[in-house]
């Protein structure tokens, strides 16, 4: 279980008085005497005392077990809840149960009452030792937003299992669900790790940018396009130009928040996968000296964060990503991309995270991309659907499986046609699985920087 807690705090909520009640085992014990008692009364009515005696004995056993069960008011429960959860990741709710100093082992079961867009957690169970017990409940967040930890329930049984005690502790604590920046920071550290062995230094990244860096003697394998023939004739040896990768280039992360981006992949919405990949690219771009902004749209423009530089700007990017709401409207690419283009006052690398269904629904998208690609560098990012790949690769054991494979193959073919048409516009297309989209996007960004396309 991976804990996603940051500065967790102990919460001892207001508890009700609890209750002690019979268990299903007690009901079975009482019910077990009914068939034999009925047979005895049918055989000889004078034996009525035996079923009554059995019932009184069972009730007495239940009463004794209830008297030996730990009183709810003596059981203390403290909850250590995480302050935030990362979307798609699990966190841990820690419960510290005090059995009131009772030395004998008692088995406790605990369950938390969670309100919000998240699956209900599985209960946790354990046996106390020396009167104390620590339980962990896994919390899993599927979407960004806020979860409410309403209460914690605990129950325990008596020595014979015929009676149980129950207690509810009201917590009333909110847990924010935000994009996973831990993975972003880890990936960014791995990206820059290759320079750590040299220590802190000024780094000059050479590439095919527009800023002239130096002349060097030609060596086999260098690009002939950068040969400086005038200086080669002057020095009587072949010289080639080297350029420095440009900085301070604007990068705009454009997120489609329409209904197609709500489809879950590996249990997480497409939009959240896109936000995670976009924030990683934003982190790398800010570290590289570029300016990064964010834009969200569906039926209309929802959010705009102007490109800015410096690592402190990443906190604003993170808040912008967390503020992108889940929408059910159909995306208006004509209005959304036209609004974005009107707000960009210089050539910009626009990274568009979106989704489409077929060639018909993509016509308006193609028209908008055609206009934007004339002025800006556009990277078109979509996520591959793993279900379609599974349907195509499934063994044709039934006719329904064959039909599903044919339909999935048709969708894949139409998708490839749209991506090919977009690529012919000069747009850089990236269609990758969710787990590989971040690495693919970084490679595209570095290739664009190296070629000086921005």
Describe the protein in words.
This protein is of the alpha+beta class and 454 residues long. The protein has two domains: 9-29 and 70-178, Immunoglobulin-like; 250-451, 3-Layer(aba) Sandwich (Rossmann fold). The chain has helices at 24-32, 34-43, 49-68, 181-192, 229-235, 270-287, 313-322, 333-343, 363-373, 386-393, 399-424, 437-451; strands spanning 9-11, 14-15, 19-22, 76-81, 84-86, 90-98, 107-115, 124-127, 132-140, 145-157, 163-178, 206-207, 211-217, 239-244, 250-256, 264-265, 268-269, 291-297, 301-308, 349-353, 377-383, 428-432. Strands 2, 3, 5, 7, 8, 10 and 11 form a seven-stranded mixed sheet that branches. It has a six-stranded mixed sheet with strand order 19-18-15-20-21-22, sandwiched between helices. α6 packs antiparallel against α7 (313-322).
For the record, the count of structural domains works out to 2
Instruction: Give the strand content.
Output: 25-35%
CATH superfamily of the largest domain: von Willebrand factor, type A domain
Tell me the CATH topology of the largest domain: Rossmann fold
Sheet bearing the most strands, described? 7 strands, mixed
Helix percent band? 25-40%
Which regions have little confidence, pLDDT < 50, spanning 5+ residues?
A: 1-7, 194-209
Give the helix tally: 12
């Amino acid at each position: 279980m991976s804990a996603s807690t940051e500065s967790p705090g102990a919460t001892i909520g207001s508890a009700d008085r609890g209750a002690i009640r019979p268990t299903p085992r007690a009901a079975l014990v009482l019910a077990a005497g009914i068939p034999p008692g009925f047979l005895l009364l049918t055989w000889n009515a004078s034996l009525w005392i035996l079923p009554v005696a059995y019932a009184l004995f069972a009730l007495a056993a239940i009463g004794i077990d209830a008297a030996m069960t730990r009183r709810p008011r003596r059981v203390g429960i403290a909850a250590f809840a995480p302050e935030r959860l990362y979307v798609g990741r699990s966190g841990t709710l820690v419960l510290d149960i005090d059995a009131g100093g009772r030395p004998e082992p008692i088995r406790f079961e605990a369950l938390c009452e969670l309100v919000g867009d998240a699956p209900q957690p599985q209960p946790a169970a354990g046996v106390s030792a020396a009167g104390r017990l620590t339980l962990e409940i896994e919390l899993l967040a599927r979407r960004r937003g806020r979860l409410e930890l309403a209460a914690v329930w605990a129950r325990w049984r008596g020595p014979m299992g015929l009676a149980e005690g129950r207690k509810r502790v009201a917590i009333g604590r909110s847990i924010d669900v935000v994009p996973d920046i831990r993975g972003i920071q880890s990936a960014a550290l791995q990206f820059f790790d290759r320079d750590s062995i040299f220590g802190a230094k000024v780094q000059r990244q050479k590439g095919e940018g527009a800023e002239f860096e130096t002349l060097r003697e030609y060596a086999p394998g260098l690009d002939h396009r950068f040969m400086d023939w005038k200086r080669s004739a002057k020095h009587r040896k072949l010289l080639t130009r080297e350029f420095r990768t440009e900085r301070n280039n604007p990068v705009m992360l454009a997120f489609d928040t329409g209904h197609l981006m709500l489809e879950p992949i590996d249990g997480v919405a497409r939009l959240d996968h896109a936000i995670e990949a976009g924030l990683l690219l934003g982190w790398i771009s800010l570290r590289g000296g570029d300016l990064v902004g964010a834009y969200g749209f569906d039926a209309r423009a929802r959010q705009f964060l102007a490109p800015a530089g410096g690592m402190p700007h990443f906190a604003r990017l993170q808040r912008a990503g967390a503020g992108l709401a889940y929408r059910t409207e159909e995306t208006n690419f004509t209005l959304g991309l036209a609004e974005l283009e009107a707000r960009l006052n210089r050539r910009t690398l626009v990274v568009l995270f979106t989704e489409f269904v077929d060639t018909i629904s993509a016509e308006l998208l193609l028209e908008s991309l055609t206009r934007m690609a004339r002025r800006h560098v556009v990277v078109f990012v979509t996520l591959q659907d793993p279900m379609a790949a599974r349907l195509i690769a499934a063994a044709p054991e039934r006719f329904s499986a064959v039909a599903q494979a044919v339909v999935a193959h048709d969708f894949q073919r139409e998708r490839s046609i749209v991506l090919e048409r977009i690529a012919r516009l000069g747009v850089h297309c990236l269609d990758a699985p969710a787990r590989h989209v971040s690495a693919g996007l970084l490679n595209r960004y570095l290739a664009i920087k190296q070629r000086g396309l921005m």
